């Protein structure tokens, strides 16, 4: 069975960007519901997968497994989202900083692209910083969709665009949420390690293995 991983920081560690109250619903209820539903679906199907990544990839694009995909991908997305944030304000450095300069000119223009992609995405979904084709790119995915089924794409960071991710703290101000998120809690250490994995063919970030 897949688990609901603990947050990698205290529930109030990211305030005021993400409050403990938001985490109580977002992590404690939304993420938990995806994990619980997925476990029930797998149990009913008699399946015992080795990892969550294989479940997402195997169910992507299969209309008969749409419910499995939605819950598996959302469980994975949320796990990666928690780790995409840090209570310690960070600045990109090393190879990551060089890649940002090469592909966006500077961190300010990357922020502009990230925020624009996020506010331009209609409805629920996710905004990602990814590595693809030797370059950094900003993309968004809709609803539960993620980067795992996309060949050659490695996620570096993700921010949740579903309203429950920010509404209690920022109301309908998605732009303000994205700007503050990018400036203060983005986990550039994770982004750097993901970039290294993409360049070397390493495994990269994985959801906790089932128990």
UniProtKB/TrEMBL annotation:
Sites where the protein binds Mn(2+): 26, 78, 160, 164
Domain Manganese/iron superoxide dismutase N-terminal: start-end pairs: 2-86
Signal peptide residues on this chain, from the entry's feature table: none
The Manganese/iron superoxide dismutase C-terminal domain, residue ranges: 92-192
EC number: 1.15.1.1
Keywords annotated in UniProt: Metal-binding, Oxidoreductase
InterPro entries for the chain: Mn/Fe_SOD, Mn/Fe_SOD_BS, Mn/Fe_SOD_C, Mn/Fe_SOD_N, Mn/Fe_SOD_N_sf, SOD_C_sf
Phylogenetic lineage: Bacteria, Pseudomonadati, Pseudomonadota, Alphaproteobacteria, Caulobacterales
Function: Destroys radicals which are normally produced within the cells and which are toxic to biological systems.
Family as reported in the entry's similarity comment: Belongs to the iron/manganese superoxide dismutase family.
Protein name, per record: Superoxide dismutase
Domain of life the protein comes from: Bacteria
Gene3D superfamilies for this protein: Fe,Mn superoxide dismutase (SOD) domain, Iron/manganese superoxide dismutase, C-terminal domain
Pfam short name (any one): Sod_Fe_C
SUPFAM superfamilies, A to Z: Fe,Mn superoxide dismutase (SOD), C-terminal domain, Fe,Mn superoxide dismutase (SOD), N-terminal domain
MF terms in GO: metal ion binding; superoxide dismutase activity
Recorded catalytic activity of this chain's protein: 2 superoxide + 2 H(+) = H2O2 + O2
């Amino acid at each position: 069975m897949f688990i609901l991983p603990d947050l990698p920081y205290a529930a109030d560690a990211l305030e005021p960007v993400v409050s403990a109250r938001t985490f109580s619903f977002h992590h404690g209820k939304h993420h938990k519901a995806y994990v619980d539903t997925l476990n029930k679906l797998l149990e009913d199907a008699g399946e015992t997968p080795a990892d969550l990544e294989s479940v997402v990839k195997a169910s992507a694009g299969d209309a008969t497994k749409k419910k499995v995909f939605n819950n598996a991908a959302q469980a994975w997305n949320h796990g990666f989202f928690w780790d995409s944030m840090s209570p310690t304000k960070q600045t990109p450095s090393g190879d990551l900083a060089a890649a940002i300069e090469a592909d966006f000119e500077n961190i300010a223009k990357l922020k502009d692209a990230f925020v624009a992609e996020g506010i331009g995405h209609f409805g629920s979904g996710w905004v990602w910083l990814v590595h693809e084709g030797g370059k950094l790119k900003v993309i968004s995915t809709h609803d539960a969709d993620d980067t795992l089924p996309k060949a050659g794409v490695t996620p570096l960071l993700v921010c949740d665009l579903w309203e429950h991710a920010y509404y209690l703290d920022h109301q309908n101000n998605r732009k303000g949420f994205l700007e503050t998120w990018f400036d203060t809690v983005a986990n550039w250490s994770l982004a750097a390690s993901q970039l290294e994995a993409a360049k070397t063919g390493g495994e990269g970030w994985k959801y906790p293995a089932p128990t």
